[in-house]
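Changelog-adjacent note: as of this version, every example in the card shows the full chain rather than a window. The one below runs 169 residues end to end.
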Amino acid sequence: MLIGGKRPFSSNERPDSFDLSLLRVIFKRLAIIHIMKSAMERFLPILNTIQTRLRDILTRNERYMLSWDIAKLRDIGEDLVELARDVYPQLIQVEHRILYLSIKEAGLGIRDRATTVQKRSLEESDKEYFKNVHEALGNICGKIETDEYYKALLAVAAKREEENLVTPR
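Full-length structure tokens:
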């Protein structure tokens, strides 16, 4: 094939080192994408577990907030801490501690606030706190249900891998 009246290189010539370097980078990126995708696919079952259990906890939490059953709300906190503890090993395997910490901290916060409220009367600020935590967890659960959470994780992982690539000079 002629380019500008000339062959880009004859059959016994090799492309210059830049072309080979570029090919190496392309193949390296493809390999990273493949590895990253298969690693992220291991994350799907744990996300499903979290979504299922979290949705159940949120449904019960809504019921308890209707009557402001503080003992039951405290149990919700315990359930969240237990969920975090149960999924921790799998989340560590896929290097995603933030979801574990978010669920655990929400559970500890609910439990501690409910314990405090049991020693005094329920105040408007307490109700607002329980509602805010419920809403935040509901947002996380909703994003897992719509795959938005997983897609965002893929995007973050891709960006991280791209930043780790050494580009040819």
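Structural remarks: The mean pLDDT is 84.
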